[in-house]
Structure formats: structure tokens, C-alpha cells
Amino acid sequence: MIKPSVQERIQQLLSSRVGVHVEVISVRSVGGGSINEAYQLITNSGTFFVKVNSASKFPSMFKKEALGLEALAATNTIHIPNVIGFSEEGEDAFLLLDWVEKGTTSTSFWEDFGHQLGQLHKCTHTNFGWTNDNYIGSLVQYNSWTKSWSSFFIEQRIDPQLKLAVEKGLIDAHKLESFHQLYKQIENIFPNEPPALLHGDLWSGNYMVTAAGEPMIMDPAVYYGHREMDIAMTQLFGGFDGRLYEAYNEEYPLNDGWQDRMTMCNLYPLLVHVNLFGSSYLSQVNAVLKQYS
Question: How far apart are CA 72 and CA 66, in angstroms?
Fold first, then answer.
């Protein structure tokens, strides 16, 4: 269960927000992924969701997640959980959000999702990157501002994960030449588009249906990137209806051949999964290399 010291810090944060003493009435453990503990907190001032992890093992993780959630929410395009606050004092860090009740999909859920995702991607920047490095899962995600998508994709996405996999002994060093040959093609593979504000980790575990039947996205790895990265991530493990893509293309049409580029986009999350979960994902990485060899 949640540590008494963490609960006390949460009560202090909530009390400072509402101006009266807030007391936690009950705590219930809920799913929080592989690196976090997560809880529903019922208080005398409402119901909240809190994630807890190691402040030293994942420095500033929740601060960066909060900044990403707030940036997504500021676009007013798609439902985002409201950030109450975070703390990184002591051993345990936590992120406190409003509790969102789950519901069932409305008849227009997938169409709404597609249109709203397209609207989010219309939020642009002059460069690719983000105001700070953040996290993809438990790994650092590098976000140095870069003018060129091909340079960003190679230098900030693929190369750091590749080097980490080689250091861990998960990818043989002789494979590096295959990646270097691939790098020469990147500039000609992706269509030229403005940087889009991305969720950054848009697999099926990172969206939910609200009580009103509407889409909500959470647990982001936010940056300005090529919008096909988000689209590809929705297809990597499935769980998204085809109506989403139809509606997205009505809202913000993708360039011709986008389906063929999905495997290239997903080279990044596949390498992340190699580093997080081991060599079982190497066959998919090798398939991408073979496709473009």
C-alpha cells in the first residue's frame, strides 16, 4: 500500500490547493504499469489518481510527465487528465491527477478520436524536439531541438537506443553497419512536414474511454516530431479501430504511402522494447533493416 509519508505529502499538496485540510479516506491499488505503483485516493475533497516511483531511479520523471500533460491539455484538442501536482522529495516521487471514471465507447468514439488526434498534430513548432529530455517508459528520451526531421530521427531517436542495445550486448556491433546504411536513406523516406505536437507513446494502453464515452490519452512522451510516429505507434500492438484513421485523414490527410512508412517509424519503439524487455523484439528490428536494405 501507499507509504504513510507519501500519503501525508499528498494531503499537504491537496490542502494547499483548496485552502482547507484534506484527509485521505481510502486508498485502492490500481494498474500503474511496470515502473510505477498507482492508487485511487478518495478524500474529503474528491477522488484522485496517484502514481508513485523512485525519485532517485527516475529523476524528474513525474515533473516531465506533468509538463507534457499540461502541454497537451493546453491545445484543447483531446481530453487529458488534469494535473494536480507532483513531488520529488525524499525517496518516493509521485504524480497526482484528477480521477477519471472509465466508460464505454460512444457511437462516434473512433471518429472523434481520429479528428481530435489530427487537431492535436496541427499544433506545430519551428523545430523538432522538446524543451527538455524526458522518458519513454523508463528510458531517457532525447529531445534536443533540431531543424531536420531526418537528423532528429537518427540522432535523438534511433542512435541512442542502438548504442544502448550494443552496450547491453543485445545487438551485435557488426549490425551497426546495417543501421548506418539505413541512415543514408532516412531523408528520402519521410515526406517534408512541419513538426507536430505528439503524444509520443500512443499505444493502446495509453488511451481510455471516459464516463462520457470520449477518448482520453495519458502517460505521454511528448515532443514535436513527425506526426506519422504517433500513427505508427497506434498500429504497432493494435487496439485501434480503422475508423480512427479514416477520420484522421479527413481532419489532416496523411501523405501518400504513409502505410509503407509505419515500419520505419516503429523502429524507434521497437529498439526501446529491445532495451526494456530483451531480444524477443530483435526479429522485428531485423525485419525493418531487411526491408530497407
Answer: 10
Digit-coded pLDDT (tens) for 261-281: 999 999 999 999 999 999 999
Alpha-carbon distance 248 to 228, whole Å?
A: 11
Distance CA 224, CA 143 (A): 9
Angle between helices 267-277 and 228-236 (to 10 degrees): 50
Catalytically active residues, by annotation: 201
State how far the Cα of 239 lies from the Cα of 114, in Å rounded to an integer: 14
**pTM of this prediction?**
0.96
**CA–CA dist 232, 259 (Å, integer):** 8
Q: Measured at the alpha carbon of residue 152, what is the angle toward residues 146 and 156, in degrees to the nearest 5?
A: 110
Q: Taking CA 186 as the corner, what is the angle to CA 184 and CA 192, rounded to the nearest 5 degrees?
A: 135
Alpha-helix residue ranges (DSSP H) falling in 24-131: 61-74, 109-121
In sequence order, what are the beta bridge partners of 51? 38, 95
Q: Burial level of 40, CB count in 10 A (0-12/13-18/19+)?
A: middle
Query: What are the φ and ψ backbone dihedral angles of 185, each rounded to 5 degrees?
Result: -95, -15
